[in-house]
Specification:
By secondary structure, the protein is an alpha/beta fold. The chain has helices at 12-29, 50-57, 60-63, 79-84, 95-103, 133-137, 149-157, 173-177, 190-196, 222-227, 229-248, 251-260, 266-280, 283-288, 295-307, 317-320, and strands at 37-41, 68-72, 90-93, 108-115, 120-125, 142-144, 164-166, 181-186, 201-205, 215-221. It is globular.
């Protein structure tokens, strides 16, 4: 099973370098004759993308008049930068990355949010008897985590902390070996692996502490969406149908993804699909439909990122996502 690493958050200097590189690539690619729409996924074929593969497998894209090519990228892949630079028509990323993109002036917008609940967590040993993230942070021991906004949020909210923070490079070997060791995790990844190896994991969701960005968010360039709203509505409808089918029965898409990602076996695919389901299908999606997003949630996230000094300029919440159903048809 592959270990899901969190996405890399680029500072302003790094952004400038990446943006320049993408601009150069764009010059050489802008005349490329692409028949298929490119949808770049920001990790390997795993259940967090199951609905997209189901949409392709069941012909949901084609029924909307679309030919879609699914591409995958590695850990920390700059998917929003690829969209901004024209190397991908659509891509997936996290909502905080959309805010960061717009704070740097990139015309990137969200269209559909798979995870309504942030799937990042902290994994500790059940034997420690911890009851909350706050208790974990105020207890002796080690926490392996990247310097991401969610960690900054927790450290600020629960300061002072006693736990020792170290970097995180993937794997669960140290977790299995040390009882006072905890680490960041993706709900449908590391905890399942640890459980199968007898690690006795207990997971605390970051969202429960108040940091809850939408995740596995479908994005595109804003000008592209406004220029072709018909296509935007079509791809959102296809994605919603694919995810509806996948949540009802993930078997076919899991089997298809397993052929592309041999690091995971059928049992792990099945367990991961079950573990993520309550984070995707919520009270909000039952009322408004899968993939729904709210202005309030985006506003809260923007304010949090500004408070944490992750962004200098605050984009308007209504500029970060588009309800394609409200666009005039073009």
């Amino acid at each position: 099973m592959s270990i899901r690493l969190h996405r890399i958050h680029f500072p302003a200097v790094a952004f400038a370098v990446i943006a320049s590189a993408i601009a150069l690539i764009s010059i050489g690619c802008k005349h490329e004759d692409r028949k298929a729409i490119v949808l770049t996924l920001d990790w390997k074929p795993e259940p967090e993308f199951g609905g997209f593969y189901q949409a392709q497998l069941a012909g949901a894209f084609k029924s909307q008049g679309l030919e879609v090519e699914l591409r995958t990228a590695g850990a920390g892949a700059p998917t929003w930068q690829l969209v901004a630079g024209g190397q991908a028509d659509f891509a997936t990323t996290a909502a905080d990355q959309v805010v960061i993109a717009r704070s740097h002036g990139a015309d990137v917008v969200a269209l559909f949010a798979v995870y309504q609940t942030f799937p990042q967590g902290i994994m500790a040993h059940k034997s420690r008897g911890l009851n909350s993230i706050e208790e974990l942070l105020k207890s002796p021991g080690t926490l392996a985590a990247e310097d991401d906004p969610w960690l900054r949020f927790l450290l600020k909210k629960y300061e002072p902390v006693k736990v020792t923070i170290t970097g995180y490079s993937g794997g669960i070997a140290t977790f299995l070996a040390k009882a006072d060791f905890s680490q960041q995790c993706f709900v449908a990844s590391e905890p399942l692996l640890a459980q199968r190896q007898g690690g006795g994991p207990q997971v605390f969701l970051i969202a429960d502490a108040g940091y809850n960005p939408y995740t596995t968010v479908l994005i595109a360039r804003g000008d592209t969406i406004r220029a072709n709203s018909r296509q935007a509505r079509a791809i959102v409808a296809a994605c919603r149908e694919g995810w509806r089918q996948y949540l009802d029965d993930p078997a076919a898409a899991n089997a298809s993804m397993e052929k592309l990602n041999t690091e995971m076996d059928a049992q792990t695919f099945q367990q991961a699909a079950a573990a993520q389901k309550p984070l995707i299908q919520t009270n909000e999606t039952r009322q408004a439909g899968l993939g729904t997003m709210s202005l309030k949630r985006w506003g809260t996230l923007i304010a949090q990122l500004a408070d944490l000094k992750v962004i200098d300029q605050q984009p308007a919440a209504e500029q970060c996502f588009i309800d394609v159903e409200k666009l005039a048809e073009k």
